[in-house]
Design brief:
By secondary structure, the chain is of the alpha+beta class. It contains seven helices and ten strands. It has two domains: about 110 residues, MutM-like, N-terminal (N-terminal domain of MutM-like DNA repair proteins); about 120 residues, Orthogonal Bundle (Helicase, Ruva Protein, domain 3), CATH 1.10.8.50. Helix 1 packs parallel to helix 6, helix 3 packs across helix 6 and helix 5 crosses helix 6. The protein is elongated.
Length: about 240
């Protein structure tokens, strides 16, 4: 699943389409009539977490969420039909296996920009307050909660917990206050690194924990387990990642 840094890069890649008119549109996405987009102009492109937001001149926004298996192509087409394809004079953008939705409300009423880890408006104090409001939840679940850390995914979760030396099964009320603050800052810092490495095509070689076999600190095998309510893969070291009791 594309995580926040990847969507931020896509937002940047699509900036040349701002100000351009959609000359044709097609696709099989449910709940949207692609032909109704024809003739409208893109006035802005935003991102919130894992969602791409294509703002149109008719006060509608096309929300694109790529889920687990989605992808996109710019001036290229895949072998499958697109969930949504947007055509311009001489150019096109195609989204595959993606959830497409039209948003009619003002985006400021729909999205909390202070929860987006890739947004300069991200609010550490608000994030900390939200974490403390769920004392019995596992940190591995909350790092995937888009209302707390919009844009965080399984890569971010595993790498942040390893960097901060925190076991994924920790519950919030057991974490020392300084460690909670450190986790939030580490999430921001890692997402910035994720973004930089992704642009350099060097993300995989810089990961230390996600889908790795051995802890680079202690040189013992990582444990792999589906923990918490989310049951997503956790990769962790039983020596250096502390489980607070």
């Amino acid at each position: 699943m594309p995580e926040g840094p990847t969507i931020k890069i896509l937002q940047e890649q699509l900036q040349p389409f701002v100000g351009r008119q959609i000359t044709a549109a097609d696709g099989y996405a449910k709940g949207i009539a692609p032909h109704s987009l024809q003739g409208h102009t893109i006035i802005d492109i935003k991102a919130w977490g894992k969602q791409l937001l294509i703002c149109l001149d008719n006060q509608l926004t096309i929300r694109v969420h790529m889920g687990l298996f989605g992808s996109y192509r710019i001036n290229d087409r895949g072998k499958r039909n697109a969930s949504l394809g947007l055509k311009f004079d001489g150019d096109e953008v195609n989204f595959y296996i993606s959830n497409i939705k039209l948003i009619a409300e003002p985006l400021d009423t729909v999205y909390d920009w202070t929860a987006d880890v890739m947004n300069p408006a991200f609010d550490i104090k608000k994030a900390r307050k939200k974490l403390l409001a769920r004392p019995e939840a596992m940190i591995c679940d909350l790092l995937l909660d888009q209302q707390l850390f919009a844009g965080s995914g399984n890569i971010v979760k595993n790498e942040v917990l390893f960097r901060a030396r925190v076991h994924p099964a920790n519950i919030i009320e057991n974490l020392p206050p300084r460690k909670l603050t450190e986790l939030i800052q580490t999430t921001i810092d890692f997402c910035a690194d994720f973004y930089r490495w992704k642009k350099q095509n060097s993300l995989r070689k810089n990961l230390q924990a996600h889908e790795k076999q051995e802890c680079p600190r202690n040189h013992i095998p990582f444990k792999k387990a589906d923990l918490g309510k989310t049951k997503r893969h956790c990769y962790y070291c039983e020596i250096c990642q502390i489980l607070y009791e």
